[in-house]
Amino acid sequence: MAEREILTWDLYGTASRELAQAVADSGYAPTIVLGIARGGLIPAGSLAYALDCKNLFTMSVEFYTGVDTRLDVPVMLPPFLDRADLTGADVLIVDDVADTGKTLELVHDFCADHVRTARTAVIYEKPQSTIKPDFAWRTTDAWINFPWSTMPPVVRRTGVLDA
Q1: A single Pfam family, by name (predicted)?
Q2: Can you give the pLDDT at residue 157?
């Protein structure tokens, strides 16, 4: 079995506070926190609270289909975010991990022409990521077991679009 990075709920609490502190220490003050669903939703909410930012938006992007299996390219899923809502904002784009970097790159490019500034924050960054996040708590080569996605779903939905 390949090496695993295990993020527990307790360690996640430390990670999210330290990541938020790094953003605050940099002087960056987002007016919008944009979480990439699904993995970035919990980190985005935690960072929004810690940075006292009440504007929390989400974008759904599918890339991973299983452990170490992914689509060729990330795909945005509906409902789609209206770029007009981002106009002139300082946006912190949040995901759980920058693995290939393609998801962060897609969302960053989506925002680029509409926002005043955009920064990226992740719990984990992998060395092979094509985009270097502005803020990362840790770097790892290992597959990461996140506390919110380690256990199987309580109910397995079949034949329904997982949006």
Answers
A1: Pribosyltran
A2: 79
The answer to whether 47 touches 23, Cβ cutoff 8 Å, is yes
Beta-carbon contacts of residue 136 (< 8 Å; ≥ 6 apart): 19, 98, 121, 122, 123, 124, 125
Q: What is the DSSP letter of 53?
A: -
Name the pTM for this structure: 0.88
Write down the domain spans for the chain.
Answer: 8-64+73-145
Round the CA-based radius of gyration of the chain to a whole number and report it: 15
- For 27, phi and psi rounded to 5 degrees? 90, -5
Helices within the chain (DSSP H only):
9-26, 41-50, 102-112
**Are 149 and 4 within 8 A, CB to CB?**
no
pLDDT tens profile 39-77: 999 999 999 999 999 999 999 887 655 555 565 677 788
Tokens of 58: 């989400």
Q: In the structure encoding, which two tokens stand for residue 155, read together?
A: 């109910």
Query: What's the mean per-residue pLDDT of the chain?
Result: 90
DSSP 8-class letter at 79: S
Separation CA 85–CA 83 (nearest Å)? 5
CATH topology of domain 8-64+73-145: Rossmann fold (3.40.50)
